[in-house]
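Exercise: predict the structure of this protein bound to iron/sulfur cluster.
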Amino acid sequence: MNPQLRIAGVVKESIVDGPGIRLVVFAQGCRHHCQGCHNPATHDFSGGKLVDIETILDEMQKNPLLDGITLSGGEPFEQPQAFAALARRARQLGYHVIAYSGYRYETLIANKDQQQLLEHTDLLVDGKFDITQKSLLLKFRGSKNQRIIDLNQSRLQNQMILSELN
Ligand code: SF4
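Solution:
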């Protein structure tokens, strides 16, 4: 099955959304409504556009410099099955996968569908953007409450393990 994704857009090359050079997919639809959200146009669940997973994978393979893909938003975990399918295929092709979520890891891991997306992801940046904890010094995250979680190590050790990128 190759479900479609509802996305706000794609950035073909980014060096600020995770290590290396990455393609970034912005999911359309988010219910967190964080104060000071950097991307309010992504909140409407009927906005954006529908795309096939293969279209994104084809785009990635046109760029030999890409190290990975970042699933950002919006909220990718509101479309867990479609984004899990994309993440799984991207990893099969050798790409590193990062997902952002306004939900905390503990919430995502308890949901069967959202757990599937975690399963095919290398790093998770979790938690809502909290403007009172905003810092421009942080790498790959906007506020101090957010965590970069090493999902490969978390699977191996059966507990939440923070990435050394924090
Ligand atoms: S989770 Fe991200 S997209 Fe959603 S409201 Fe918060 S900052 Fe905005």
